[in-house]
Write a structure and sequence with these properties.
This protein has about 250 residues and is of the alpha/beta class. It is built from ten helices and eleven strands. Strand 4 and strand 5 form a beta hairpin. The protein starts with a strand and ends with a strand.
Length: about 250
C-alpha cells in the first residue's frame, strides 16, 4: 500500500494523484462543484483560460494572480464567490498562481522522457483535496490503497516553494489513512514529514493559517473570511475528480 507525499511541485507517477492547494484553489474548486458547477478546466495561463472559455460558450472565467481577481474575469479564487447563484450548471475555466500550475506540473512526464514500455501511465485518477473534503477524499483513497494502488499526494506550495498549510493538510490525510489501513501502509519521507506537521497542529486551522506565510498574507489583505471557509473541516462531501480533461464532482 504505497503512499507518497511530495512537499514541492514536481512531476509524479502514480495510479492516483491527489493535488492539495489549501489556500485557495482546491478548497474553492470543491465549493464550486458542491454549489452545482458542471465542470472545471484548469489552465496554467490567462491566455489558456480565455481560449478554453472561447471553445465552450457560457463558460465562466475564474482566476487570480497574487490573490487578486484577474481583469475581465467573472470570478476570482475565493471560496465565498462560488455560490449556487453564480455557478450552478456552468462550466468554469480557471487559472491560479499556484494550484492550477501544480496540477500541470504533477501530470508532466517524469524525466527521462522515454519510460520503459512496462511502466504504468503517470496517473489513472486525479483528485483535489483540502480540509473541506478530507474525509470524502480519504474514503476514496483507502480502498484504492487496499488494492495496492500507488497513491501520490502533491502539495502545490507557493510560487514553487514550500507551503506549511499544504503539508499539514497532506499530513492530516496521511493520519486518516494510517488509522484505516494500519501498518500495511508504506510511506515515503514526505508522507512521514507531513504527518509530523499535522501532529503539531491537529485540527487547529486558525493557528496553522496564522503561522503559514500565505495565510498571514491573505489575512493582511482582507481575505480573512476565505481562511475560515478553507479551514472548515469536512464541510463538503464532494471530491473534484478528473474526467475527460476537466474536473467534475466525484
Amino acid at each position: 500500500m504505497p503512499l507518497h507525499v511530495y512537499l514541492l511541485p514536481e512531476p509524479v507517477a502514480a495510479d492516483v494523484v491527489v493535488v492539495i492547494d489549501v489556500l485557495r484553489f482546491t478548497s474553492s474548486a470543491a465549493y464550486a462543484l458542491a454549489a452545482g458547477a458542471r465542470s472545471i478546466a484548469t489552465c496554467e495561463t490567462v491566455e489558456q483560460a480565455r481560449a478554453v472559455a472561447g471553445y465552450r460558450p457560457g463558460t465562466l472565467l475564474a482566476g487570480e494572480r497574487q490573490a487578486v481577481k484577474l481583469p475581465g474575469f467573472d470570478l476570482g479564487n475565493s471560496p465565498l464567490e462560488f455560490t449556487p447563484a453564480a455557478v450552478r450548471g456552468r462550466d468554469i475555466a480557471w487559472t491560479t498562481t499556484n494550484g492550477t500550475r501544480a496540477i500541470a506540473t504533477a501530470l508532466a512526464p517524469r524525466r527521462p522522457a522515454a519510460p520503459p514500455p512496462t511502466e504504468r501511465a503517470p496517473h489513472r485518477d486525479l483528485l483535489l483535496a483540502s480540509p473541506v473534503n478530507l474525509s470524502a477524499v480519504a474514503a476514496l483513497l483507502a480502498p484504492r490503497l487496499g488494492e495496492d494502488a500507488v497513491v501520490a499526494v502533491a502539495c502545490s506550495g507557493r510560487e514553487g516553494g514550500f507551503a506549511l498549510e499544504d503539508a499539514a493538510c497532506a499530513g492530516h490525510l496521511v493520519a486518516r489513512l494510517r488509522r484505516t489501513l494500519g501498518d500495511a501502509l508504506t510511506m515515503n519521507d514526505g508522507a512521514r514529514a507531513s504527518a509530523c506537521i499535522h501532529e503539531a497542529y491537529g485540527e487547529d486551522f486558525a493557528r496553522l493559517f496564522r503561522d503559514a506565510r500565505h495565510g498571514r498574507w491573505l489575512r493582511d489583505h482582507g481575505f480573512g473570511s476565505d481562511l475560515e471557509a478553507c479551514g472548515a473541516l469536512d464541510a463538503l462531501e464532494v471530491v473534484p475528480r478528473w474526467r475527460d480533461g476537466r474536473f467534475v464532482a466525484g
